[in-house]
Amino acid sequence: MRKQRKNSTNQEKVFILKRHLIDREPVSELCDKYNLQPTVFYRWQKEFFENGASAFEKPNGSRKQAEHKRIEQLEAKLQTKNEVLSELMEEHVQLKKELGVL
User: Fold this and answer.
1) Are residues 48 and 64 in the same domain?
2) Which residues contact 102 (CB under 8 A, 6 or more apart)?
3) Per the domain annotation, does 3 fall within a domain?
4) Where are the alpha helices (DSSP H) in 1-102?
5) Which end of the chain is less enclosed by CB atoms within 10 A, N or C?
6) What is the Cα–Cα distance from 76 to 61, expressed in whole angstroms?
7) 96: domain range?
8) Which residues contact 48 (CB under 8 A, 6 or more apart)?
9) Ordered per-residue pLDDT tens for the chain, 102 residues
10) Number of domains composing the chain
11) Which residues neighbour 26 within 8 Å (Cβ) at sequence distance 6 or greater?
12) What is the pTM of this model?
C-alpha cells in the first residue's frame, strides 16, 4: 500500500528550513525527525530561495501594478474594438446608400 502524503503548511516548511539554515541542524536529522525525504527538503529549500524576494515586496505595490497593467490592456482592446466597429458601420451605411435603402 502507498503511504499517505503529509501536506505541510508554509509555516512548517519555513520552520524546518530555519532549523537547518540558522540552527545548523543536519538535513538527515531533520528528515528523520519530520519524516521527510531529502529530495522534498531540498525542493522546499530551492523554492524558498527562488521566491524569497517576494517576502520583501509590498503586498499592494505589485498587486496595484498588475491591476494597472491589466486595465491598460483592456482599454487598448476596447479601443481597437471600437475602431473596428466604427469602420464596419461606415461600410454598412455606404452599402445601404449604394443599394438605395437610405
Assistant:
1) no
2) 93, 96
3) no
4) 10-21, 27-34, 38-50, 59-99
5) N
6) 23
7) 60-102
8) 13, 14, 17
9) 566 777 888 899 999 999 999 999 999 999 999 999 999 999 999 999 988 877 776 666 677 888 899 999 999 999 999 999 999 999 999 999 999 877
10) 2
11) 20
12) 0.53
